[in-house]
Amino acid sequence: MALEQNQEARNWGMIAHLSSLVGFIIPFGNIIGPLIVWLVKKDEMPFVDEQGKESLNFQISVFIYAVISGILTLVVIGLLMLLALGIFWLVFAIIAGIKAGQGESYRYPLTIRLLK
Questions:
Q1: 44-65 b/e with 16+ CB inside 10 Å = b?
Q2: pTM score, two decimals?
Q3: Does residue 2 have a pLDDT over 80?
């Protein structure tokens, strides 16, 4: 669904999604990055409020799936699940960032929506 967003809101929406990539460098950065963007900009821009919550929900969901996959490494299948989850996380975070940069609301698949 394409919504008219000003350029600043689109940029911050994109940052809300792409800031999760900080998780490659900082432990829990995939949650901390979107959380900071959302907390700082949620009251100023409704688009960033929506996309920030979506990004946070996705990052929390991926964390939960990673914990489950980590436990399943005891029966080997978890290793494959962790690899697939990592690729899934990276691809969909980039897609969401691109869509938000274009001013489109993005909804991640397989996301537990804890923040409404």
A1: ebebbbbbbbbbbbbbbbbeeb
A2: 0.89
A3: no
